[in-house]
Amino acid sequence: QVQLVDSGGGSVQxxxxxxxxxxxxxxxxxxxxxxxxxxxxxxxxxxxxxxxTIGSSTYYADSVKGRFTISQDKAKNTVYLQxxxxxxxxxxxxxxxxxxxxxxMPLRENVYQHxxxxxxxxxxx
Length: 125
Prior knowledge:
The protein has strands spanning about 1-5, 10-15, 20-25, 35-40, 45-50, 60, 70-75, 80-85, 90-100, 115, 120-125. By secondary structure, it is an all-beta fold.
């Protein structure tokens, strides 16, 4: 089994920064991609960023490129999402996710098998 615990959300003003963390535990040796997704009420979950755990290649949604950075600390089994220049439209519940699949679509929700519980990010103008 794989467990994900995401944390680090909070409330910030526009232009501020937050860093989300996702701690991975359990049988993790076959995890190939870690991702961050976000969701607002009434909307589908959106892929924000992903990282290939073997080679550390990263992928970003156009809406966050240049502002968000995904990274991993393999020694701590933790993935981070550094979010800078936050805007009100970034307000959402953020979820980390893990997949054992090798995929050409690492920002697609349906390739991930394991999910964290979510952490709320609120950006005020």
